[in-house]
Design a protein that fits this description.
Blueprint: H1 3-9, E1 27-30, E2 33-36, E3 42-43, E4 46-47, E5 52-53, E6 56-57, H2 59-81, E7 87-97, H3 105-120, E8 127-133, E9 142-150
Parallel strand pairs: 5-6, 7-8
Antiparallel strand pairs: 1-2, 2-9, 3-4, 7-9
Length: 151
């Protein structure tokens, strides 16, 4: 089954590549690797939530937002590599805006990792870091970036 088929089966549509919010490009490619810019949980140009995990946002909220940001990563990957079915995920970093007492960044990051696996199958299996930070651009709760390669 293709990544496009899996996407459709999940009832998802690959979005347009989100416009950069500052002076950068959505991806950079060198020596066979594509590095995505950090992607926020943006849908149709609107940030889906603001704030911090553990201070008004739950782990489940964060995982859902990470899932949305990962879908944006796939949009970038498909644009950079020419097709969603060409994308293989090597490494993912999930930044989680966290209240000082919040320690479930790894569970928030699962939202991104699980989506990548659901859509890309074995090509979505990756190394990962989940990092708690005090604040993210535009007060976003999560940001997801990835290193990709062509299958």
């Amino acid at each position: 089954m293709s990544a496009h088929d899996r996407l459709s089966e999940l009832g998802l549509v690959l979005p347009q590549v989100p416009s950069p919010a500052a002076a950068y490009q959505p991806w950079s490619t060198t020596e066979g690797f594509t590095f995505t810019a950090g992607q926020l949980p943006i849908v149709d140009g609107a940030l889906q939530a603001t704030g911090k995990l553990g201070a008004g946002l739950t782990t489940a909220d964060g995982a859902a937002l990470a899932r949305t940001a990962a879908l944006n990563v796939l949009a970038v990957g498909a644009a950079a590599l020419g097709d969603l079915d060409a994308v293989r995920v090597v490494k993912v970093v999930v930044f989680v805006a966290s209240d000082p007492g919040f320690a479930e960044q790894h569970l928030v990051a699962n939202g991104a990792s699980e989506l990548l696996g659901e859509i890309l199958g074995e090509h979505g299996v990756h190394a990962r870091s989940a990092v708690g930070v005090s604040v993210l651009p535009m007060d976003a709760p999560v940001e997801v970036e990835a290193v990709l390669t062509r299958i």
